[in-house]
Amino acid sequence: MLDLLDLILLKRGVPADDRTLAFRRIDGNPQSKVIYFLPWNTPLGVARQAGFVPLDFLAAYEMPPAIVSSEPELCVQAMLGLVADAEAVLAQSGVAPADAVIIGLSVGSFAATYLANRIGARLCAVAPADRADFMVWQSPAARIVKRRAQQKGYQLAHYSKAMFGYHPAHNLAGVAADSVFVLGRRDPFVPPRRRTAFVRAIEAHVANAQVVKLEAGHFRTLMYSGRHQLAMVGQTPAPARWQLRMPIDLSFGRTTAQGQS
C-alpha cells in the first residue's frame, strides 16, 4: 500500500518536456562545502519546506528535465552537465575534494554518486538505486517516460548501452569511506531488486560506509534523511517534532535556466 505522500507524488505527473538539458543552480553560502542535487521535478523551495535540505549549501541543483528522458543519450548528457558545473563550482570556491560533501536526493543521487566517485568526496545518497537504466524501465515514477521511449522505438537495451559506466553501482570505488547511504524499505519508486543490488555494490566497494535502512516510503525517506545529513557534518539534529505543514505544493511547476539564480 502506498504512503499518502508517495501517492501524491505518483499522481502529480511528469514534465511534458523530457529533452531539455538546462538546469537551475542556486548559489548559497560561499563558505559551505556542501553540494545538493535535488529530486527530479522538485524546486528548492519545495525541498526545503519538506525538510529534504537541512544544510547550508554552496550550491543546490534543480534537475534538468532530461535527467529522466525518453532519449537515452540525453539522460547521460544531463547528468554530465550537472557534474561538470558542480565540479567547477567546488574548484572556483577552493573546496578540496576531501572536504566536499555531495548530497544526492532520489534521482539527484545519479549525479551525486558520479561526482563523489570522480573527485573522492564524501557522499550522502538518499533513496538511491543501483542502475539508472533499470530505474527508467522499472520504476513506477518513470512509467510515462518509459511509454514515450517505447513509442520512439527505444527498449531497455538502448538505455543500458547509453548509460554503461555511469550507473551509481559502478561509481562507488572512489567515494570517501565515511559516506552515508539512506534507503527506504517501503520505497515504492525504487524496486526492491534495485535497492538490494545497490547495497551489495556498497558492501563490495565502500565497505566502511554507513547504510541506513528506514521503514519508510520515498517521500518520508527523503524527509527523515535530514538528521543523517546533519550528523554527517557534525551537527546535532533538533529534537524530533513534526515540522511538515500541509498542504505542500506538490505541483512542482517551475521554469529551468542553466547557471546561477
Secondary structure layout:
Elements: H1 4-11, E1 24-27, E2 34-37, H2 44-50, E3 59-62, H3 72-92, E4 101-105, H4 108-119, E5 122-126, H5 132-138, H6 143-151, H7 156-163, E6 180-184, H8 192-205, E7 210-214, H9 218-232
Notable traits:
9 helices; seven-stranded mixed sheet; 261 residues; 7 strands; Rossmann fold; alpha/beta; 12% strand; disordered C terminus
Structure characterization notes:
There is one protein chain. The chain has 261 residues and is α/β, with parallel strands linked by helices. The protein has a single domain (4-232), classed as Alpha/Beta hydrolase fold, catalytic domain (Rossmann fold), CATH 3.40.50. It has helices spanning 4-11, 44-50, 72-92, 108-119, 132-138, 143-151, 156-163, 192-205, 218-232, and strands spanning 24-27, 34-37, 59-62, 101-105, 122-126, 180-184, 210-214. A seven-stranded mixed beta sheet has the order 1-3-2-4-5-6-7, sandwiched between helices. α3 crosses α4 and α3 (72-92) runs parallel beside α7 (156-163). The longest helix has 21 residues, at 72-92.
Kindly summarize this structure in a few lines.
With 261 residues, this protein is an alpha/beta fold.
